[in-house]
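Tokens as discussed.
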């Protein structure tokens, strides 16, 4: 070797007689490199320590089966990145983060599983200025051999939800209602054996629900709140001793009895609902006694007084207020006949129709979706049902097997239209409305802990978190938290 060659080796840190190799960290073992490119073929692992100025990288027929997010952050100047003909079934989200100069990506020849894990890739491809060779799906079977670029991201169902247990509230309850007072969400429980309406609020220090106030209400079946500015009213419908209206004049005061409600009419209340008629708040109380009648009570001065008696002698078990065709309606379920629909006309409710094919219905609850009005009908024996309003009548849409059900309640939580079918003898079932089909699909069972004779459900959003309350007649009230899961992550 000439003197000039020896001098160059010495300057490069290579001793005389040693073979020259690229500077450490510039071309990994098993790769061949030039100034701007690297080709790694047959490597058992992902090579590392490439030069940060690398422009072209090819990893071909390697033993790599998965990559980590951000694997190429140290080579931000890449223009071409080939991962063709490997054993990659999926790619991690953010794999190409920081590669702003990419012009071509080759992913062909990999056995991609085209499930939710590739959704991010399908959404990323249209957003970059690089051409992407994607290749075909290896699975699942329904998508095998289909080219990735032919897949429609909108067809992927990659968002899931879960209701997990959060807290238990002692004492059984027949009803639960959520309301907002002075900008803070609250919940009120009707606890007949404890003889009270229990109001709960959020404890920001302990990050759980705590008791704020209770009002005495022996044998209570329903505690229905109404907020009018700074005033809070609570109707306590009781089986014995008479129903009462309680009031809180302002936020710094406590609830106190205001009025005995229709003592000669409300003999055996079973349900109470709030509705607005001609701009005024009203309560309707369903009465289940043989000699009683469901009563509409509307505000008149400081209290609420009977406006109309409905459906006498029919032993009503449930009332549901809803709007159809832009007008207030009232649906009454009873032990003696099919549910009857009333409409508000001339300052009073008039019978409009009954609901066919709906025998032995204990309770009804409605919800709206995509401009349609749906009805959930609870049956203790037989199948509970879903019906849809067609402009003149509720028509059967779906039947769901139920045993020992007293509640089939729809709830809109975040973006999800749910319906919960309670049971006295089995796990309560949560269903979710599938928008494409317009039908309820099974989502999950509630529990553990299992609900013991559930009677009502309500949801509340508190501190950015969503909760579901389940009032149980033969067990404590259970609180579940609503979680959203991204299956594409």
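Sequence:
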């Amino acid at each position: 070797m000439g003197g000039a060659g020896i001098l160059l080796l010495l300057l490069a840190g290579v001793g005389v007689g040693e073979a020259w190799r690229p500077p450490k960290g510039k071309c990994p073992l098993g790769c061949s490199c030039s100034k701007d490119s690297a080709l790694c073929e047959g490597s058992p692992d992902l090579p590392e320590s490439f030069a940060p100025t690398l422009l072209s990288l090819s990893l071909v027929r390697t033993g790599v089966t998965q990559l980590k997010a951000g694997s190429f952050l140290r080579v931000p100047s890449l223009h071409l990145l080939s991962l063709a003909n490997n054993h990659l079934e999926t790619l991690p989200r953010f794999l190409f983060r920081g590669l702003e100069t990419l012009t071509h990506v080759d992913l062909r020849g990999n056995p991609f599983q085209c499930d939710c894990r590739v959704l991010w890739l399908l959404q990323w491809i249209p957003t970059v200025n690089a051409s992407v060779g994607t290749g075909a799906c290896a699975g699942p079977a329904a998508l095998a051999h289909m080219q990735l670029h032919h897949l429609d991201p909108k067809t992927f169902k990659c968002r899931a939800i879960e209701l997990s247990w959060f807290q238990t509230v002692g004492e059984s309850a027949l009803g639960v209602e959520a309301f907002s007072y002075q900008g803070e969400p609250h919940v009120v429980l009707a606890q007949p054996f404890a003889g009270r309406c229990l109001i709960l609020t959020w404890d920001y220090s302990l990050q759980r629900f705590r008791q704020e106030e209770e009002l005495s209400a022996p044998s209570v079946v329903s505690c229905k709140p109404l907020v009018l500015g700074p005033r809070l009213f609570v109707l306590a419908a009781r089986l014995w001793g008479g129903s009462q209206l309680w009031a809180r004049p302002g936020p710094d005061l406590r609830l106190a009895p205001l009025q005995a409600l229709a003592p000669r009419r409300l003999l055996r209340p079973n349900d109470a609902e709030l509705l607005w008629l001609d701009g005024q708040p009203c309560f309707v109380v369903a009465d289940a006694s043989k000699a009683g009648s469901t009563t509409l009570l509307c505000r008149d001065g400081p209290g609420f007084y009977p406006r109309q008696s409905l459906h006498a002698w029919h032993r009503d078990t449930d009332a549901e207020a809803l709007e159809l065709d832009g007008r207030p309606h009232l649906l009454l379920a009873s032990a003696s006949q099919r549910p009857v629909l009333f409409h508000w006309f001339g300052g009073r409710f008039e019978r409009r129709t009954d609901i066919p094919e709906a025998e032995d219905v204990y309770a009804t609850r409605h919800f709206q979706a995509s401009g349609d009005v749906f009805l959930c009908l609870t049956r203790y024996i037989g199948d509970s049902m879903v019906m849809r309003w067609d402009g003149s009548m509720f028509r059967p849409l779906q039947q769901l097997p139920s045993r020992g059900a007293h509640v089939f309640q729809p709830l809109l939580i975040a973006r999800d239209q749910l319906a919960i079918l309670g049971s006295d003898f089995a796990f309560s079932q949560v269903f979710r409305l599938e928008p494409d089909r317009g039908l309820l699909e099974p989502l999950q069972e509630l529990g553990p802990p299992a609900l013991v004779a559930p009677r009502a459900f309500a949801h509340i959003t508190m501190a950015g978190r969503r909760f579901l309350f389940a009032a149980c007649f033969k067990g404590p009230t259970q609180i579940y938290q609503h979680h959203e899961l991204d299956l594409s992550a």
